[in-house]
Amino acid sequence: MAGPTGAGHRTRARQRYLFVRILEACNADCFMCEFALSRDTYRFSLDDFDELLPRAAEAGVGYVRFTGGEPLMHPDVAELVRRGAGAGMRMSLITNGMMLPRRIEELADAGLAQVIVSLDGGSATTHDVYRRSPGMFDNGLTGLRRAAELGVLPRVNTVVGPHNYAEMPQLQKTLTEAGVRQWELSAIKLDRSIRYPDPEHVRSVCDPVYEADPQTHLVPLGKRFYGDTPEEQDRYFTDSTTPRASEPLCHVVDDVIYLDGKYERAYACSCLPHREGSDPHGASWRQDGVIQLDTPAFRSQADFFREQGPQICNGCSTTAAGYSDDVARLGSVPPWQY
């Protein structure tokens, strides 16, 4: 399978991840999110997806993940999953979990391979306060358990900050007991510096979470949210720079395409800003009305962040950073590690 590298082409050893933001609307009121309680009317259409799928296959995509907003508010989300699975893609979506218990059987039947639920607290008592959405924690866990029963890989993404890091041991226990198979902890990102009164306490609480026995505990993917090395931890606790791909190169941009359906902008990493006008490196993915991936503008963006990302990025996720480092060390990454 051939795929672009930005400097010509090579035989693609790894399948790519395609993220598609299929709507902006959301039914949660999370304090850290710009889409909280959005009632935006945009929806990525079935026709758009039918047009996109063959282009994605040509670009070497093997994994598709729907994001939002809240994807389960899309009336055609199950049919979108069905069409993607029918085209040979492994389908995933990320959800706040509120609607998951009543949608998971339909989604599993449509061919959903992975579901990611956002859970930030060790229990409903705190999570539902952080998300300002009563019932969200219990619904999310119920949906995850049912997903596992139906053969859908259950994963949790957690946004961690000074408000909740001390709950991570309890959340680890809860998710392990629930049968969750994957877990990402990524640092909260706000338009201001994030300050921890006692970085050593963060390490003492969270290091055991990462160092737990994976045979008995669910261990987070990727890097520690506060960094693996002393240098990364100093940058994080001093100036809020999250851990990023190690030098010299970021390999994520070779394997990721993020499409913002509403603004028709493409990005070479899911961590880059995806609102129109917020990032000058975003590239249009429609040329003369036709969907085109890997345009010269997109490849130029990928080339830039491949070389400069390890020095300049300030908002990387732990899975993106870990993915890039694994590629650098091993040349390959197991499925769904991003």
Describe this structure in words.
- Helices cover 35% and strands 18% of the residues.
- The chain has helices spanning 46-58, 77-86, 100-110, 124-130, 136-149, 168-178, 199-210, 230-239, 296-312, 318-330; strands spanning 2-4, 9-11, 16-21, 61-67, 90-95, 112-118, 153-160, 182-187, 256-260, 265-267, 283-284, 286-287, 290-291.
- It has a nine-stranded mixed β-sheet. It has a two-stranded antiparallel sheet with strand order 1-2. Strands 12-13 form a two-stranded antiparallel ribbon.
- Helix 6 links the parallel strand 7 (153-160) and strand 8 (182-187).
- Helix 1 packs parallel to helix 2, helix 2 runs parallel beside helix 3 and helix 3 (100-110) packs parallel to helix 5.
- The model is unreliable at 1-11 and 274-280 (pLDDT under 50).
Mean pLDDT: 90
Rg value: 19 Å
- What ranges have pLDDT less than 50 throughout 5 or more consecutive residues? 1-11, 274-280
Overall geometric form: globular
Helix-strand pattern, N to C?
EEEHEHEHEHHEHEHHEEEEEHH
Fraction of residues in H or I helices: 25-40%
Strand order of the largest sheet: 8-7-6-5-4-3-9-10-11
Report the count of strand segments.
13
Attribute tags:
9-stranded mixed beta sheet, alpha/beta, two-stranded antiparallel ribbon, 18% strand, single chain, 338 residues, 10 helices
Q: How would you summarize what this structure contains?
A:
The chain has 338 residues and is of the alpha/beta class. It has 10 helices and 13 strands.
